[in-house]
Input
Amino acid sequence: MLIDKIRDNFGIRGRIIAASLLPVLLISLLLVTYYIFSRIDDANKRITHNGERYAVELAKLSEFALFTGDTEFLSVLSKSLFSDPDVYSVRIMNNKNDVLSEVISPRYADSDPVSINSNEFVYFSNVVAGQLSTIDSDEYFDVIDSSPYPDLLGRIEVAMTDSHELSKRSELLTHTLFILLLVFIGAFLLAVYFSGQITRPILNMKTWVNNIAEGESVGSVDRKTGASSELGELEEAFYTMALAVNNSQFELQKKIDTATAKQKDMIDHLEASNLELEKARESMQSAITDKTEFLARMSHEIRTPIHSIIGFVSLIKRTHLDSTQSEYVRIVQYASEHLLQLINEILDISSLESKSIKLEEEPFNLRNCVEDVTLLMSPAAHKKGLELVNLIDSDVPIYLLGDPYYIKQIIMNLVNNAIKFTDRGDVIITVSLLDDRLDIARLSICVSDTGRGIAANDLDLIQQPFYQTDVSRSREHEGVGLGLAIVKTLATLMGGELSIDSTLGMGTKVNCTLALKKQEHAPEIQYQDNFSDKKILCFDSHPLALRSIRNQLLTWTSQVFTASRLERVQDLLQSAKDDDHPFDLLVVGVNKAISDSESWRYRLYTIKQTFGIKLLILLGDEGQHKCNLLSREKGCLCITKPVAHAYLYSSLKSILTGTDTAAPQHEHTASPGIPVVAPDIQPLDVRILLAEDNQFNRLYVSSLLRDRGYMVTEADSGQTAVQQAMQQKYDLILMDIHLPEMDGLTASKKIKTESLINSDTTIIALTADIYINRQARLKEHGIDDFITKPVKEDEFWRMVDKHLLVRTSASDGGQPYTMNPDTKIKAVNKSETDAIKQQLLPRLIEELPEHSSKIYAAFISGNREDLLEHLHQLKGIAGYFRLEDLSTAATRADHYVRNLESNKLIEVRPLIQRIDEEIQDILSSALL
Amino acid sequence: MIQKSTIILFLCLVLPSIILPAAYAARAADAKGLAVAIVVSGENREYRQVYTAIKERLESTVDHQVILKPYLSDNYTVNHSNTKNRPDLIVTIGTAAASKVAVTGGVTPVLSAFLPKSSYESIWKDKDRPVSGIVIDQPISRYTALLGLLFNKGDKVGIFNNKGDVAYKKLIPLLRPTGLSLVAEDVYGSLSAKDISRLLSATDLIFVNPDFKYISPQRAKWLLYMAYRDAKPVIAFTPSYVKAGALAAIYSSPEAIGMQTAKIISTFLVSPAQVANAIRRMKSIIYPDNFYIATNKQVAIHTGIRLPDEKRLEHLIRSGERHVD
Output
């Protein structure tokens, strides 16, 4: 950091000086350090060498004196060493270690040994008598009493000190540093001088550049720096260039000023344009928002009366009508349902475009999704004689996380299109696994048909909203061309894509890929009965339908054999019988091709009689009436195609365990997948609790239920529903979500958690909010399923029958349940409807002021939730009695309140007043 | 008569026939020569010189009649049970060889050569074996003769004596004819400067007796130095002493002792079987016949001694010895 700071702050001159001085300083320091250390090392070596040499030489010299004991001579010898200032003392001892001489150098004699701040080195040498050859023969050594060791005379100790060297060393250091300082000062002066020579011209050039940059004149700078050689020439050339730049800059500045003035004008103009564009954009955005809001609001407003239309048209159909009236009612019903579908699609595409949809991530069963769609769409398919088959590959993970509502919608739209544009053949739903990573499964949902196909140049266009391949067809087949656009958008939101492959006249294959998370803890399927020892033969002339039913059967037993021709069926049965290992069950899929021929029933009857085998017949809607004979036979069960997995299991259980009943039923109104066999349970035994605050909806739904002979208990609030559930056991509870006092969610939760007798009763929610249906919180509150308002009768019955079936199956040992065949449709004639209205009208007149007061009270107190609740109720009442103005005012107020924050409720005052005025008008009219 | 003549004839004819073959056989045995085992103390140059001198001398004079079988003293052993291969004579060269043979034992006669007299005496003392020694020491008379030739009458001759040893007293009568007197300094332990100083101050010269055992080469150096400092001459027994600072010395070379030993061995050829007796008849200690004198002229000048030529001195001493003999 510091180096960077210095580097940034140093100019060229500073850097040149630093570049000159640093090497000099470093080299000098290195040399001085090396020199000093060499000197110190040399001095130490010299002291050591001298000490050793003195000891050795003194030993030689003192030999005779030691021999003769001449201490005086020894002292003289010792003192001779003191000419060397490093010698501190000399001590001479004889061979008995008696000190003969000990002398301290006069240089250190007066010093306290402790004060000598130095090291003392002592060197020893033994004094040995030198030999002289006096004996020629070794023989004499035997005579002489001599030792083999050298004759030790004594010892010399020379003590050396480096104190003198230390003083010399400090002196040396001082001198060296002084020289170093001189060198450094000299180098610094030279560096300053030469750096000035280099930097002055550069600084001048820098000043000129600054002047140019600031628009000043270059000529104001004194350019005589005295620099010589290249730098002088460079300075001169730069000065000339700076003058030229200065001049051109002046010219350029003039041009820039002119251009700037023009540009400024242009910018002002552009800013004005931008402001206009911004206004236009805001206006357009506002228009788009208004359009979306308008679509949403209008769709919602339209749905409410349609609810009433569809509901009561279905009731009208049950009255005695002549053929013309029946046709008119059918047209009204068809048009209403078509209109509802259009509105739903518009709502969906509107929501998708405004990106207000948030996909849920809740656990769901993919098989159920596919089967629900198949069940729902099979009547339409069978009506056109189409085979509707779903094929789910065995490796496809069933338990996934996602938004089942929209996944169903994707499949529904694709199947709906396929049925719509296919006149004969089949519609196949194939679900396969594309990629299976750790927690994500990429699935392919492919719907293929054998319809008329799509031209290649239309393949991309049909994915656009409101596009249809040709006008005539769009007229032939209802719809506004939103289905594929919705599917494409939903697929993209789910991490997938849509692709279409089609050949004119051959059919279309629409493939939708989805990326869905797998459930970490998938529920384990447990079946009460084990059919692994059962041997089943499966027949269907349609290969894919055969494959579909075979795949499902393989779930429970591996002994599944297939045949696509009846002749082959007979052969296999005969062969198995001959092998004493006969089949336990023959599952027969009856499609249009077979049901059209008259012989199949006889052949099946013959097979049954011949081989004594049990029969499970899967019929399309159109074939149900043709199996009277067979279905009366013991060991024969007819069910409607397509068959849901769970229902197939219960059917297998029924027929294989012998608990089936032979009495056939041909109730045309029976939903697909519902067995057409009579139940043992009477509908009078079925108790249903209906919680609905809107009395008209309550009346409609209860009428439907009572028509079937069910016992219906009505509740107009959540609190009442809970109280009823505490007192009476019900087989089914239908619960509106928006209820006064206690909403439907809370009431459902209380029933499931607090009621001892209804904690396991199925609760079906009734709601007009199509988005709330898919909320996981429905399940959190104990709600098992839902029905979307406006209630469509067939959908309503499918849902009710489905749950009643499950309940009775579970509680009665799997015995399938359907409606009582003896139950007659209770006609609700016009007079009865009018009577109802007449009966309700006084109550309406009574309740309207009360509604008005509640709305006002909620508005004044700022209670947004209460206000919405009362507005919602008022909408229903106004819609039922066709009080158009009141309904519009209530709907508008409801919309604004929903989109307003609580502290801004004051803004809806005009609308509240409008509602009040409408109510007053109605009451005035009534009184008149 | 007949009986007498018969007896005489018998004696004349039969006895010679019996005696002559035995004598011939004995002569034939003598013709093998003299078997001599030479035990050498080591491989030093001086031992080799002695051995070479013996061998060459015998080969040149009594060719192949003496069979020499050399041994190093360390390898020498005797098999006492094997009497057949026993040598007629054992010759030892040096003190170590003599000691080994003495310790090994046996009855074979021994001739110990080239060893100091004191060593010889200590080795063969109390040994009951035919033995004789040729020592490297010179006879005392030879030293006294030299002292007489070099110094004036009245001079005092100093000598260091091993304390308790009285052998030095033999010098006194021998010096008397030369007019020199003897001063002895008893020494026990290492020769000290005080011993030297005391003797130097009391005498005019110092004679270093080869029997004096307390003088190491180191101490000898200081003796020579102190004597030189006091300008007092030293007479010694080796040429090295002279080189180191002694005035003169009498000595015998290894070759001379080897030649003298070979000469004695060759005398045993006359009767090899009688070697033991011959040795017993010899002197126990035989001094070297041949000797040399070494002098140091520089010391002579320093000490003011008039020094005759070495050959002259040798001649005068030999002449004196022949005259005495």
